[in-house]
């Protein structure tokens, strides 16, 4: 029999589900099954579960026809479980590495009905806070099992389903199911402890409990938080049916009042207008369920709260809460006080510009003005350029203005209206534009005005980790202000994604309440619609003869290794290509500032880092060689050969972090040494059957939305307000 059945319900967690599943399947213990339950999720959760089930026989995917909620979704997984123990893990949490062997050893040696495991709360900013286990148990618990009556303090551990493994026969014999509604863990977690004959505690952090920045029920203002009362009523109904457990009623009652006060005290849950009613419900339950012999009332401030609840004194309770909040605000203000930093002449100039910007904010928004920017004002490029072109055609009433650096003005197409970054004109259009479109973020000082629409187009499908996920890889995120990043993300109204995988990763890297526009990448429209004549013209401009075989080499930037270049000898590669071979070399734009880092090339090798439109290079190339660059996703739209050359794959993965292994899920042939790269071209493996099969699978996964109409879909939705 399988030892552990993991039940993983999934609803709107597409950005986190892969990490959850990988944490289970990557453990050094294989006697598990994973039952993933798609709870009618409107995102890609179901597809992710199907994908994992197709490649690992330990995974079973269950699709529910409609959203039923976390409790019933867990029941659906429980009904299909075959393991000796069941572990309910939420789809946005993940297991600590290498913890399962220790869990399995404890289960097989002590055979508990319930095994409690430790956890840490992992916040969106990567802070980790410990659980209450060390506070609950003065001495770390040993392997001996016990009944709850022997260690009643156990009820003070967090009452969740995911921090305990339950013996399946014990659970089914108890007839216990998850109830519908919010706070469903309450009516499950306490009864299993109350009824268990053998409880074990493993003093080992096993679960990373994700504290999401957005989307979590615990941070949702909603009157459904009143459902907590129904769940606690079920717990006391369970106790009423078992008079032999009456001695545990006082500790359970104290936990109930603690939980009610926790929910009431959380400003993200109960709206101010509903707090008096919530307090009255607490008082009613206090009087209804209070044990006849009393219960252990907490000391200090918490005890005072209990007494106010017992007396039904809401006004006094509210005044106490208000005074406490005022004290906390005063302490916070003291902590935030900082020495005044001397301002330089540049800071003074910036301050004047920002004052001008703030003055412009008081003027009306221009209902026809759209402002575009790309790559930190490097010019007219990427997705914003494609959207601007489509807007000129489909929404001619929209006036488009680009923000550019002064040294990049000469790269703009003739007739392009622009303002120079860092000038009063720039501040004015930022303050007054109806639409702000960028493939990176606008500066921190930009304020999101009512009536303004911010469109984040992004500039690639993420291979390397991005956004908040970079906190785990500090070498690639030196100097990053993650709090500032999130303030910028909160301005987004729309996030454009090129494929479902990108949507999932952006959800995880940039958690906020923007609209996901799953339309494909506008910049790739040109790749879809390009004619043979256009390709010939592009090649001619680049000096490529019709019979040349053109290889484009486009490696990505290594933030953790400034100045690093992969080992690459262009002339050895040309020798492998033969006399018809031509090589175009393009550096990442981070290496293309003021012409630094250019290769001295000529003849059959050309540095094309200064070519403004990378799409020209894609159209001209017969083969792309790259590593972890998003170029592979764009180039795959053309359905031409791609080679992954990743000589530092292990170091890159460890230092920079990746969302998937490009050598294992490659769009074509793979080389990890330069000799292997040359051999691929000599042997013809670059265009062989295996490479074509890999490219076909890659295109199906990542290029399905690129049909030539992405920019039009953006314009119709964002500028014209069309839906459908």
Question: Could you characterize the architecture of this molecule?
Answer:
There is one protein chain. The protein has 724 residues and is an alpha/beta fold. It folds into 3 domains: 4-219, Spore Coat Polysaccharide Biosynthesis Protein SpsA, Chain A, CATH 3.90.550.10; 363-520, Rossmann fold (3-Layer(aba) Sandwich), CATH 3.40.50; 525-703, CDP-glycerol glycerophosphotransferase, C-terminal domain (Rossmann fold), CATH 3.40.50. It is 39% helix and 16% strand. Strands 1, 2, 3, 4, 5, 6, 7, 8 and 9 form a 9-stranded mixed sheet that branches. Helix 16 (482-489) links the parallel strand 14 and strand 15 (494-497). Helix 14 (382-394) packs across helix 26. The longest helix is centred in the middle third of the chain and has 23 residues, at 314-336. It is globular. The protein starts with a strand and ends in a 5-residue tail after the last helix. Belongs to the CDP-glycerol glycerophosphotransferase family. Residues 5-149 form the Glycosyltransferase 2-like domain. Keywords: Cell membrane, Membrane, Teichoic acid biosynthesis, Transferase. This is CDP-glycerol:poly(Glycerophosphate) glycerophosphotransferase.
Summarize the SSE layout with pairings.
Elements lengths: L3 E7 L3 H12 L6 E7 L6 H11 L3 E5 L6 H11 L4 E4 L5 E2 L4 H11 L3 E10 L4 E3 L2 H4 L27 E4 H7 L11 H10 L3 E13 L15 H14 L8 H17 L9 H15 L10 H12 L2 H23 L8 H17 L4 E8 L8 H13 L4 E6 L13 E3 L3 H9 E6 L14 E4 L25 H8 L4 E4 L2 H10 L5 E4 L6 H5 L2 H10 L7 E5 L16 H8 L3 E5 L19 E3 L6 H7 L2 E4 L4 H5 L6 E4 L3 H7 L13 E3 L2 H10 L5 H14 L7 H10 L5
Parallel strand pairs: 1-2, 1-4, 2-3, 6-9, 10-11, 10-13, 11-12, 13-14, 14-15, 15-16, 17-18, 17-20, 18-19, 20-21, 21-22
Antiparallel strand pairs: 4-8, 5-9, 6-7, 6-8
Helix pairs in contact: 1-2, 7-8, 9-10, 13-15, 14-26, 19-21, 20-24
């Amino acid at each position: 029999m399988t030892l552990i059945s993991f039940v993983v319900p999934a609803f709107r967690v597409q950005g986190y589900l892969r990490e959850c599943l990988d944490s289970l399947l990557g453990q050094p213990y294989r006697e598990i099954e994973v039952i993933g339950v798609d709870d009618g999720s409107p995102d890609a959760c179901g597809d992710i579960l199907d994908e994992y089930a197709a490649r690992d026989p330990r995974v079973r995917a269950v699709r529910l026809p409609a959203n039923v909620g976390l409790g019933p979704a867990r029941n659906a997984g429980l009904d299909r479980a075959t393991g000796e123990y069941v572990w309910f893990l939420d789809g946005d949490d993940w297991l600590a590495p290498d913890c399962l062997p220790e869990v399995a050893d404890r289960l097989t040696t002590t055979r508990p009905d319930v095994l409690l495991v430790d956890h840490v709360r992992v916040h969106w900013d990567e802070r980790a806070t410990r659980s209450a286990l060390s506070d609950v148990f003065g001495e770390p618990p040993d392997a001996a099992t016990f009944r709850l009556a022997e260690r009643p303090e156990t009820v003070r551990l967090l009452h969740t389903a995911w921090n305990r493994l339950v013996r399946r026969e014990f659970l089914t014999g108890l007839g216990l199911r998850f109830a519908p509604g919010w706070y469903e863990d309450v009516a499950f977690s306490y009864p299993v402890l109350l009824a268990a004959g053998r409880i074990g505690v493993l003093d080992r952090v096993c679960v990373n409990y994700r504290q999401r920045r957005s989307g979590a029920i615990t941070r949702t203002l909603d009157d459904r938080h009143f459902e907590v009362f129904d769940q606690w009523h079920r717990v006391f109904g369970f106790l009423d049916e078992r008079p032999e457990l009456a001695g545990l009623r006082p500790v359970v009652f104290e936990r109930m009042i603690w939980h009610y006060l926790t929910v009431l005290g959380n400003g993200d849950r109960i709206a101010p207008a509903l707090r008096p009613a919530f307090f009255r419900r607490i008082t009613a339950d206090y009087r209804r369920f209070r044990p006849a012999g009393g219960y252990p009332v907490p000391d200090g401030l918490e005890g005072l709260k209990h007494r106010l609840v017992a007396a039904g004194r809401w006004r006094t309770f509210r005044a106490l809460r208000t005074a406490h909040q005022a004290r906390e605000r005063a302490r916070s203000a003291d902590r935030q006080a900082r020495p005044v930093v001397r301002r330089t002449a540049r800071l003074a100039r910036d301050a004047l510009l920002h004052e001008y910007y703030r003055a412009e904010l008081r003027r009306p928004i221009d209902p026809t003005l759209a402002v575009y920017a790309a790559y930190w004002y490097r010019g007219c490029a990427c997705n914003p350029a494609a959207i601007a072109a489509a807007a000129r055609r489909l929404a001619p009433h929209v006036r488009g203005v680009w923000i550019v650096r002064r040294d990049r003005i000469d790269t703009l197409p003739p007739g392009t209206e622009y303002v120079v970054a860092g000038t009063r004109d720039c501040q004015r259009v930022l303050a007054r534009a109806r639409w702000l479109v960028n493939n990176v973020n606008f500066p921190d000082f930009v304020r999101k005005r009512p009536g303004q629409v911010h469109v984040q187009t992004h500039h690639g499908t993420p291979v390397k980790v991005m956004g908040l996920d970079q906190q785990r890889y500090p070498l690639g995120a030196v100097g990053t202000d993650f709090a500032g990043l999130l303030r910028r993300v909160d301005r987004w109204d729309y996030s454009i994604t090129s494929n479902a995988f990108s949507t999932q990763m952006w959800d995880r890297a940039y958690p906020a309440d923007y609209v996901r526009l799953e339309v494909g990448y506008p910049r790739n429209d040109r790749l879809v619609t390009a004619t043979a004549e256009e390709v010939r013209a592009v090649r001619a401009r680049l000096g490529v003869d019709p019979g040349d075989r053109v290889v484009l080499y486009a490696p990505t930037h290594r933030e953790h290794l400034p100045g690093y270049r992969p080992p690459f000898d262009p002339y050895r590669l040309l020798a492998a290509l033969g006399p018809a071979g031509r090589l175009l070399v393009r550096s990442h734009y981070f290496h293309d500032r003021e012409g630094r880092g250019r290769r001295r090339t000529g003849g059959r090798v050309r540095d094309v880092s200064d070519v403004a439109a990378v799409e020209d290079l894609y159209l001209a190339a017969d083969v792309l060689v790259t590593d972890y660059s998003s170029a592979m996703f764009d180039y795959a739209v053309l359905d031409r050969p791609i080679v992954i050359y990743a000589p530092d794959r292990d170091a890159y993965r460890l230092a920079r972090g990746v969302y998937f292994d490009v050598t294992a899920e490659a769009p074509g042939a793979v080389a990890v040494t330069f000799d292997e790269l040359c051999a691929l071209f000599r042997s013809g493996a670059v265009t062989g059957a295996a490479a074509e099969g890999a490219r076909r699978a890659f295109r199906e996964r990542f290029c399905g939305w690129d049909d030539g109409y992405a920019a039009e879909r953006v314009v119709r939705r964002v500028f014209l307000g069309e839906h459908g």
